[in-house]
Amino acid sequence: METNAFFTVEEKKQLFTLYRKLLQLSGETLRKNDCRNLKAHLIHSIQSHLIKRDVFGLNPIIKDMQTAVIVAEEIGMRRASILGLMLHDSVYFGTSTAEEVAESFGEDVAGIIRGLIRVNELYIKSPTVESENFRKLLLSFAEDMRVVLIMIANRVNVMRQIKDCPNDEARRKVANEAAYLYAPLAHKLGLYKLKSELEDLSLKYTERDVYYHIKEKLNETKASRDRYIAAFIAPVQKKLEEAGLHFHIKGRTKSIHSIYQKMKKQKCPFEGVYDLFAIRVILDSPLDKEKLECWQAYSIVTDMYQPNPKRLRDWLSVPKSNGYESLHITVMGPEGKWVEVQIRTERMDEIAERGLAAHWRYKGIKGESGLDEWLASVREALESSDSDLEAMDRFKLDLYEDEVFVFTPKGDLFKLPKGATVLDFAFHIHSALGCKCTGAKVNGKNVQLRQQLQSGDQVEIMTSNAQTPKQDWLNIVTTSKARTKIRQALKELAARQHDMAKETLERKFRNRKIDYDDSTMMRLIKRMGFKVVTEFYQSIADGTLDVNDIIDRYLEQQKRESDQHDEVLYRSAEAYALPSPQAAETSGKEDVLVIDQNLKGIDFKLARCCNPIYGDDVFGFVSVTGGIKIHRCDCPNAAELHARFGYRIVKARWAGKSQGALYPITLRVVGHDDIGIVTNLTSVISKEEGINLRSIGIDSNDGLFSGTMTIMTSDTAHLESLIKKLKAVKGVKQIMRN
User: Fold this and answer.
1) Cut 0.85: pTM above it
2) I need a surface site. Which of 77, 385, 617, 715 has the fewest CB within 10 A?
């Protein structure tokens, strides 16, 4: 055989010792050709030179055999688990296949190997094992509970073997994983001995000084502690015997890790931890007398030693939700030391020791719905007389079948509901990432947004700055978080598009020298059949509506309204006439349009850009339709009209007096934001004769206010009087006419 070079002299000795021990532990469950087939597989694997030592230099064959001994001796598993453990490296490194193993040893062995390999592949993704999500993913990947138990045993074995390893960084990593991941799992399964060993070894490798300090202190006090326990128990034992109770008493010392946690929690030295040990009184009572005899034992203990009433824990009258029953009391023992005493029956102790979460809940390890009962049934199967553990096939880890656990390229782990897509994952990480997502690389392969994710997938989100959320994304995502974020992003995107569309429309108005009036535009939008303004601007953004076409419709709307306005509002208030010969003579032989009450026959309109009123200095502008528009001389458009269309300008003046016609005027107000400023302004306007307030809008910012008021007045005299009075209002700085 060419296997000798693979083993050191010491390892060869270990090989034969471990082999004999495994035969002894599992021989009765092995099948006829198991040993021969196993030997052939292992020799083939060694000769292929593909199986390598790990980062600690441990021989994989020896390590697997050591783990198999723990699995068989301390957990109680037999054939399938041992063979699966011994052969998984061969399949992992490619010297054998799962199908070949199934053919030689059976499908149950191959199933365990597949579970172990799937779990090993998780570590390639460099996960953060401290997260609760990783523990859930580990359980869901393992599928078969035996895989989890093998992993716990393997970690215990590795922790035992690496005490002299020079690679301190790797040892610390393994030790941290043991504390955060494997110790809690062992605790939940009732493997208390392995759990304590994992925690103690983890502390030894990560905080060596603390570990040896506590260990030395325990060694120093062991003799005195044993004497104290014996002294405490002796009188209690005597009284219990006199009462005719059947029982046994045992004392247990806390683990080094537990003592350290107490020291940290209570912020005290070793000497300050008073409950270094606990006394357990276990009664052999018939079912109908359990509570009676427990309370009888409690009474005997508390009669002898002073109890601390604040430390009484009665899980006898009302058991814990997980079925745990016991009485816990802390009493003052000899030498003034506090001692914890636990009183329970054999039945109660059996339930507690079987791993039904008896002790771990109040120690702060949180349980999960459905997990407790399932782990209890698994533990029960492990302790059953079925040495082959065929019943284990019933126990599959479907606890997290409604969840998937996904890695980022950096190894961070996220939990999503089953059916979640790449797009769900992108929005789960960050909204900005989701909005720019174009696809992803899942396990190195390019996939689309709607690709559903599976547990263990490593996902790298691909983005583009040109990408924006789409309406159909709502049909791709499955999580409410992603759906909410997409709706929010679509709403914000639509708002930006609407703003851009409105800005484009207004710019076109300015380019064509057309006054933009919001009220006219709103009426046009309604006339075009849009129920809400956003639909109108969305149509512009989509290109469904042409801006130039909208402007043409706007001009038609404006002309129609002006015609109606003149007939209804201004026809009786203004009368325009051609100048008489006398009027022409008085003006120095220049044509002057005189606006009075008696002349008719020409189409006159007041320009809406400056809203002239009686008394304003005005001029006329001949429009292309032949009508004349009256503008104020200080109109914003006056200079351009004079420069470009001087030949169409007509001098004009008012004749007679204002006859009660009201003209809309917009005033702009600026001032200090004093309390009651709006009330003061409206009060002044309401007292003015011949002036009506149509609307007012005020905005406040950083102590200042600005706003506009639309009033109705008949002439400039009333307007100037009002402006003068408004300027006198406290807080007003400026009044300007638009």
Assistant:
1) no
2) 385
